[in-house]
Structures are given as C-alpha cells and as structure tokens.
C-alpha cells in the first residue's frame, strides 16, 4: 500500500520535461486555467451574450417608446382637461353674471308687480268708498223722501176728503213712478 501512496505522491513531482502530469501548484495553474475558461466562454458565449444584451436593449427601447407614447397621451388628455376647465369656468362666469342680471330683473319685475297690485288695491278701495257713499246717499234720500211723503200724507189725510184724497194719491203714485225710472 505504501507503493500506491508513493506512486500518487510521485505523480505530483514528475518532471515537466517530456511527460504528462498534474501540476499541483495552485498559484501557477490558476491564471492559465482562468484565461482558458474565459477564452472559451468568450468564444462560445459571445453570441448568446450579444443576443441577451440586444433583447434587453430592445425591451428598454420599447419601454421608453411606450412611456413616451403614454406621456404624449397624458399631455393631450391634460390639455383637453384644461380646455374643458377653461370652458366650464367661462360658462360658470356667464351663469354667474346672467344669474345676477336675472336676479336684478326679477327684483324689478317684483317691485313693478307689487306697485301695480298696490295701485289696483287703491283703485278698488276708492271705488268701494264711492260705492258706499253713493249707497249711503241713496239711503238718506229714500228716508228723507219717505219721511216727507209720510208727512205730506199725514197732512193731506187730515185736510182732505175722500175724493181729493184719491186724486192726490194718484198724482203722488205717478210722481213716484217717474222718480223710480230716473233712479234706475
């Protein structure tokens, strides 16, 4: 067994001239191995790496383009919204101005209609007063006439005989009929 172990140990110490063997010196072999591995990776992985980088570049460019399109759409929507806002503000201002003028117009209309109503009420009051005065005057006339008639009838009844009494009554009835036609 010692021979087998010696043979593995001696493999690490083989002379490099003309023979093949393992170099166990880590510091001497790593830069060579690394340069070989990197060279192989660059040679075979160059196309794959370029494809990956190109795909990533295209995705980034597409994202930028989409972002620009979305930004343009957002700016357009913002301008439309600003335009609508200006339009609504102008309409609101117009409604406010129209509202104030409408309020003033309604106020004047109300004042005028109140004035007309007061005028009509004053006219109705005056007509009612004139009507009541005329009614009172007619009632006083009727009473005076009735009293005068009763006084005249009383005087006639005491002074007249039947024949004269009948003629006087007929004349008075004729006068009353004529007065009634005048008052109607």
UniProtKB/TrEMBL annotation:
<keyword id="KW-0793">Thylakoid</keyword>
<feature type="coiled-coil region">
    <location>
        <begin position="71"/>
        <end position="98"/>
    </location>
</feature>
<dbReference type="GO" id="GO:0046933">
    <property type="term" value="F:proton-transporting ATP synthase activity, rotational mechanism"/>
</dbReference>
<dbReference type="InterPro" id="IPR002146">
    <property type="entry name" value="ATP_synth_b/b'su_bac/chlpt"/>
</dbReference>
<dbReference type="GO" id="GO:0009535">
    <property type="term" value="C:chloroplast thylakoid membrane"/>
</dbReference>
<keyword id="KW-0812">Transmembrane</keyword>
<feature type="transmembrane region" description="Helical">
    <location>
        <begin position="32"/>
        <end position="49"/>
    </location>
</feature>
<keyword id="KW-0813">Transport</keyword>
<keyword id="KW-0472">Membrane</keyword>
<keyword id="KW-0150">Chloroplast</keyword>
<keyword id="KW-1133">Transmembrane helix</keyword>
<dbReference type="Pfam" id="PF00430">
    <property type="entry name" value="ATP-synt_B"/>
</dbReference>
<keyword id="KW-0934">Plastid</keyword>
<keyword id="KW-0406">Ion transport</keyword>
<keyword id="KW-0375">Hydrogen ion transport</keyword>
<dbReference type="GO" id="GO:0045259">
    <property type="term" value="C:proton-transporting ATP synthase complex"/>
</dbReference>
<protein>
    <recommendedName>
        <fullName>ATP synthase subunit b, chloroplastic</fullName>
    </recommendedName>
</protein>
<comment type="function">
    <text>Component of the F(0) channel, it forms part of the peripheral stalk, linking F(1) to F(0).</text>
</comment>
<keyword id="KW-0175">Coiled coil</keyword>
<comment type="function">
    <text>F(1)F(0) ATP synthase produces ATP from ADP in the presence of a proton or sodium gradient. F-type ATPases consist of two structural domains, F(1) containing the extramembraneous catalytic core and F(0) containing the membrane proton channel, linked together by a central stalk and a peripheral stalk. During catalysis, ATP synthesis in the catalytic domain of F(1) is coupled via a rotary mechanism of the central stalk subunits to proton translocation.</text>
</comment>
<keyword id="KW-0138">CF(0)</keyword>
<comment type="similarity">
    <text>Belongs to the ATPase B chain family.</text>
</comment>
<comment type="subunit">
    <text>F-type ATPases have 2 components, F(1) - the catalytic core - and F(0) - the membrane proton channel. F(1) has five subunits: alpha(3), beta(3), gamma(1), delta(1), epsilon(1). F(0) has four main subunits: a(1), b(1), b'(1) and c(10-14). The alpha and beta chains form an alternating ring which encloses part of the gamma chain. F(1) is attached to F(0) by a central stalk formed by the gamma and epsilon chains, while a peripheral stalk is formed by the delta, b and b' chains.</text>
</comment>
<keyword id="KW-0066">ATP synthesis</keyword>
């Amino acid at each position: 067994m010692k021979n087998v172990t010696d043979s593995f140990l001696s493999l690490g110490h083989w002379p490099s001239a003309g023979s093949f063997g393992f170099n166990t010196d880590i510091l001497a072999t790593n830069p060579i191995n690394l340069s070989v591995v990197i060279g192989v990776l660059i040679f075979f992985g160059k196309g794959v790496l370029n494809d990956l980088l190109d795909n990533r570049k295209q995705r980034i460019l597409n994202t930028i383009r989409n972002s620009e399109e979305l930004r343009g759409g957002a700016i357009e929507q913002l301008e439309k919204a600003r335009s609508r806002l200006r339009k609504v503000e102008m309409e609101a201002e117009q409604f406010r101005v129209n509202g104030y003028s409408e309020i003033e117009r309604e106020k004047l209309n109300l004042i005028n209609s109140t004035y007309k109503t007061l005028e009509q009420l004053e006219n109705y009051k005056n007509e009612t007063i004139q009507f009541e005065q005329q009614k009172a005057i007619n009632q006083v006339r009727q009473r005076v006439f009735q009293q005068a008639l009763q006084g005249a009838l009383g005087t006639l009844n005491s002074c007249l005989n039947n024949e004269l009494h009948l003629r006087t009554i007929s004349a008075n009835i004729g006068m009353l009929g004529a007065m009634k036609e005048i008052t109607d």
